[in-house]
């Protein structure tokens, strides 16, 4: 069974990085494949993470970073435990299907933005306790960070999904491609 990590015939840096980002998004998406709403919302491990909540979090992380890079984020950023926790709790309107559709839009916006900028260009980070004061990052760093962030959570998603029903990433890739696992 084939595992698609990057798109076929990607030969430039930007395209390669975007393909790796898409592959990591695919890992999170596949972890939700065929689950009921109850299964997606379940918390089957010692962590408080559900696949549904993890989906909301990765969408917020991606869109938040892109907004910072565009200069559209608030000039000051105060993170509280409550605000961070809400980023993991979907509302009634934020069904898995609605969030996946939102992520499709966010992913397309990310790709358009990344294709429109020089990877060497920089953006300023908002003040936050975990960033050095008055720091700048390149668009390349941003893209690599998004890959890192979503890949980390794709791993969480694999563990949560396997805990729910025993399905592994390999089986889910086969299921997605209509093959027998």
Automatic annotation (TrEMBL):
It comes from the Bacteria. InterPro entries: DinB/YfiT-like (IPR034660), MST-like (IPR007061). Pfam families: MST (PF04978). This is DinB family protein.
């Amino acid at each position: 069974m084939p595992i698609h990590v990057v798109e076929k015939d990607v030969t430039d840096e930007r395209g390669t990085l975007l393909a790796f980002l898409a592959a990591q998004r695919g890992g999170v998406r596949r972890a939700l494949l065929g689950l009921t709403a109850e299964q997606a919302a379940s918390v089957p491990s010692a962590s408080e993470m559900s696949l549904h909540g993890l989906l909301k979090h990765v969408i917020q992380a991606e869109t938040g970073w892109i907004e910072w890079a565009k200069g559209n984020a608030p000039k000051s950023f105060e993170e509280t435990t409550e605000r961070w926790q809400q980023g993991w709790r979907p509302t009634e309107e934020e069904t898995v299907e609605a969030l996946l559709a939102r992520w499709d839009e966010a992913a397309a916006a990310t790709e358009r933005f990344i294709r429109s900028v020089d990877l060497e260009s920089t953006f300023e980070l908002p003040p936050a306790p975990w960033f050095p004061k008055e720091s700048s990052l390149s668009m390349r760093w941003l893209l690599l960070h998004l890959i890192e962030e979503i890949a980390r959570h794709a791993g969480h998603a694999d563990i949560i999904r396997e805990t729910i029903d025993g399905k592994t990433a390999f089986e889910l890739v086969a299921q997605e491609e209509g093959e027998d696992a």
